Amino acid sequence: MSVQNRLSPKHPQRLALETAVRGALAGRRGAWNLVLEAPEGLALVVAVVAPDGSAWTMRYCGPGLEDPESIAETVRTACDRRRWLQRGGAGPRGSRA
Predict the structure, then answer these.
(1) Topology of 2-89 in CATH?
(2) How far apart are CA 43 and CA 65, in angstroms?
(3) Looking at residue 67, what is its pLDDT?
(4) CA 96 to chain CA mean position, Å
């Protein structure tokens, strides 16, 4: 796993965010890449690139939306959903992707 933490050293959640998202990706196979940044300090951006090259990005704006555990849970859920879509298996309530 590669993590590029581009948050300012003065960002109040810098280390907590990195630790939380590292934990969300722990144990996954392959070379995962993660970028944390806050362009111009306006929003938190989390970008994830999976081993197969597929990628997704999310942006958090506003106060109170940068809870590290909440963001880690979103990352974990999105990665789990990606694996479900790859398998082409039945989704929630028996639906198919």
Answers:
(1) Double Stranded RNA Binding Domain (3.30.160)
(2) 10
(3) 87
(4) 24
